[in-house]
Amino acid sequence: MSIVRNPSSLACLPAAALALCAACATPGKPAVAQLAESPIVAAELVAADPRGVIAWDGRTGERVAWSELVARASSAEAVLIGENHGHPLGLAAAAALFEDLVAARPRATLAMEFFERDEQSRIDDWLAGLADEPVFLARTQRSNGNYPPGHRAMLHTAKSNGRAVHAANAPRPYVRLARTQGYEALAQLTPEQQRLFHFPDKLFAGRYRQSFDAFMANGADPAAADVRPRLDAVFRSQSLWDWTMGASVVEAVRGAQTPLVLVVGRFHVDHEGGTLQVVRHLRPGTRTLVVSFVDQRADELQEADRERGDIVIYVGPAS
Questions:
Q1: How is 291-316 classified by DSSP, letter by letter?
Q2: Domains in the chain, ordered, with CATH?
Q3: Are the C-beta atoms of residues 257 and 109 closer than 8 Å to each other?
Q4: How does pLDDT run across 122-153, given as a tens digit for each residue?
Q5: Chain-centre distance of CA 26, in angstroms?
Q6: Strand order in 288-294's β-sheet?
Q7: Cis before 259 (ω within 30)
Q8: SS3 category, 106
Q9: The whole model's pTM is what?
Q10: Cα separation of 78 and 111, whole Å?
Q11: What H or E segment, with its residue span, contains residue 165?
């Protein structure tokens, strides 16, 4: 569950079958350049330069040039890109950043919130050429909603450069079980099932939980007796996502696949979000860079966005 300032950007991965409309990548052409060839890209994105977005240091408020952003990301072990799901310009800029990191670092790899761990073999088959793109899209049930052009560009960058792509998230049946029956039910599953998620060592409190409760309570009192049990149940799901994605990041970093770029809904990483806290808990000292894309317009760092991430990039409303 990825919460952003615009509630319409919440991620609910649909399980519907998709129309296989994406064209195959053109050999030798940068994946980001292929965004303009997708029939589902907005016209304004075609004209936009994704590397022309304006970035700000999330602490000092100083402007950060694109080259400096790439340099800072290159020196990190884990780059956590907090996206607004489906935002055309934001995802194009994220894809451009990953493309530049791949060019700069021979072991840069990708991890995606929108792919679940039980889909890893299907990703690997496509990367290895054992399945073509239509088969890959069908096997992973991709649609315009859960496979926007920016995500496609990132995967094609990884494939054309021989880089790994990690399905980072916990499969939804286990997330649902955590919500409805608790972690005790997950503990009864087989070792093979448990391999597909990471048990939370603890549930985070502080600002992260407070922000989660405030959003999910939808105006109600989070402490109310008829509200708290529901919030606790949903936060168990949220935490299973955070711990599984954070563990996926740490596993790749330990394998020297760095910088590992995780593309995730920004609530998970903004303002010391849960996934970032998991990375720091599981591997203290990991060099992280949080890049938060904000779906508003601003000509300077806004006070509400100070320390949202190491880098804050305003990309305007999605439409």
A1: EEEESS--SS--GGGTTSSSEEEE--
A2: 53-314 (3.40.50.11550)
A3: yes
A4: 999 999 999 999 999 999 999 988 999 999 99
A5: 25
A6: 63-64, 55-57, 311-314, 288-294, 78-83, 260-265, 109-116, 165-169
A7: yes
A8: coil
A9: 0.85
A10: 10
A11: strand 165-169
